[in-house]
Amino acid sequence: xxxxxxxxxxxxxxxxxxxxxxxxxxxxxxxxxxxxxxxxxxxxxxxxxxxxxxxxxxxxxxxxxxxxxxxxxxxxxxxxxxxxxxxxxxxxxxxxxxxxxxxxxxxxxxxxxxxxxxxxxxxxxxxxxxxxxxxxxxxxxxxxxxxxxxxxxxxxxxxxxxxxxxxxxxxxxxxxxxxxxxxxxxxxxxxxxxxxxxxxxxxxxxxxxxxxxxxxxxxxxxxxxxxxxxxxxxxxxxxxxxxxxxxxxxxxxxxxxxxxxx
Length: 262
Fold this sequence. Notes:
By secondary structure, this protein is of the alpha/beta class. It is built from 8 helices and 11 strands. The strands form 4 sheets. Strands 1-2-7-11-10 form a 5-stranded mixed β-sheet, with helices on both faces. It has a two-stranded parallel sheet with strand order 3-6. Strand 1, helix 2 (46-59) and strand 2 form a beta-alpha-beta unit.
């Protein structure tokens, strides 16, 4: 959804974060915690790029408010989780759709995520990017097989698994940190800390303000390209693909899938 709506994604994740952060600073809010994502690491998608830029926005904020970011992966059972989708597909008799036989993702439970986010937020002094320990990555096809079997069916016999192909902006494997980031332990054994592991770009907020003006004054047909170009200019490691086609491929016609974004 975000890959096909880059302009709205940028407005929400980047300008929205900036606006709320500036208001928090103005009102003297003590702590500000951004929920980031593992997709912000070496981003190739609009989702990851805008979240990485939101992290940089907070690192560029000044004032008494303690701004921190917390990165983690997928949350089991959340609205964007793949689990509800798989359960629905199994209940309908299949097929269960997986993008690629080798694709992996990091998972944690809702309880774990909430607890660790609150812990990270409480220990932040300002400018940090925290990383939650999500254990080992899980192959999505193994998750699908396990759910099929737990539902009393046999994968491949009773319920078919169909591979639909990676969608625009999707990685085969997510990463946890950028090359060059130095991590350190914290008082909590499930939380790591990057203290400005990748230096914040000088003057990111003024550059964003300039980009906002260009976006608002660009023809509607050019706005998408303006956003993608801005992500590449502001984030050195961003390697986003060209704008994806809105036309559906035969595989997506056969087995549409929901994005599993946090």
